[in-house]
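S.,

As promised, the S-adenosylmethionine run. Input:
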Amino acid sequence: MEIKQRTRVARSWDALDRILTAIEEGREDKPDWIALQADCRLDKIEKPERRKLVARMHPCVLRGFKANNTKIKKKKKRLDYWRSIASEGFHDFTDFGWMKSYDSPFKRDYDYVGAYLEGGLEALDPYAVYASVLGTFEFGVEDFVATKLCRNVGTIVEPMAGTADFAYEGHFRFPDYQYIMADLDEAAKEKVLAQPWLPQTDKHYLAANILDESFWQQVKSLSTGESLSLIGKQSHHLFDAKQLYKLLDVATRNVDYFMLEVPQLVTVTEMGGTDDMSRPEMEDAGFDVELVEEPDGEPNPFTNLMHFHLEASDEDGERALFDYHDWTVWQQPILVTLARLLDLECLYYHSEQFEFVSVEEDTEDCDVEDNVCFMLFTRRDLSGILTGNDD
Ligand SMILES: C[S@@+](CC[C@H](N)C(=O)[O-])C[C@H]1O[C@@H](n2cnc3c(N)ncnc32)[C@H](O)[C@@H]1O
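Predicted complex:
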């Protein structure tokens, strides 16, 4: 099911003030977005005034605001503008606009560039840089649980969670669900648990190896309602064939729906070399972020194995932020083959139909050729679920 969003448009400062006052006084519901248009230009007002206005908008919107009417040519001014908004609780890491976590009461500081300006590459927070270029923001829990298949989900599992953006963002929309995250990286766990969470949410971040069966048994015992698990950002590519086969087997025995984010269809040989991920504020601050092939990492077209790392660099040098050694690009037909060997049902999220559909039945208009896509594996008997009525 498509999720409808409501936008209020402000074409002047007076109009914006009227909208915000009505929301503050409880006369109007918060819209998902406020769109600033025409003379309502955040780049035309002084920094203190801009910060105040952005801070005022924060509690008045569910998702964020759009300000596509700005134009700043000079680097320094543009960076100042970006930082003044990012430090007031909105990020622009997607194409949607300036976003916050859904209806979040917490004003999070998204300005990861300030640390670099103070202390160079070594001062950069690798997790914040990762989240800005690769964080899971475009599709969220709400998209998947709005489907016929996953409407009874009550537990969200995020294995290989890292910064756990999927679970963290999801909990603002569905604070009553159970959230189970896991990673080998203790520092990532500490980072995620140090973030402000809504107090009513049940959450567990386990320092665990997700290839261990005991991890999945723990997930099952902690789950309430049906469970949906997502390994985001193609992280399952860190596993070899036997590990992935075992993971598909054991995970689907312990969660209802097991999802993998998979890349668009590209030949692996096109993936090597250097992939520039730099965002405008990075370039304005004077550094770049790239996925860089390792000296021995050239993609192998038979095994699809490659080695690379995420690197930040500036004129003084470079710093490796995260390592992607032993990365095998498991393309869709291979995943379907593994699923068949295990007698799993295999579906994918169709982003035009807003539903999970079987990989065997409906591939028209799916974005698998151009975009990442979400494949779902399950042992459940799906007869009646996908075609069932909408109540
Ligand atoms: C690409 S990063 C995280 C991406 C995250 N899923 C996202 O969507 O942003 C991959 C993560 O997998 C974790 N990891 C690798 N092998 C693991 C394993 N066997 N068990 C648990 N976590 C693992 C790493 O520590 C790292 O944090």
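The chain has a mean pLDDT of 94. The domain at 125-391 is CATH 3.40.50.150 (Rossmann fold).

- D.
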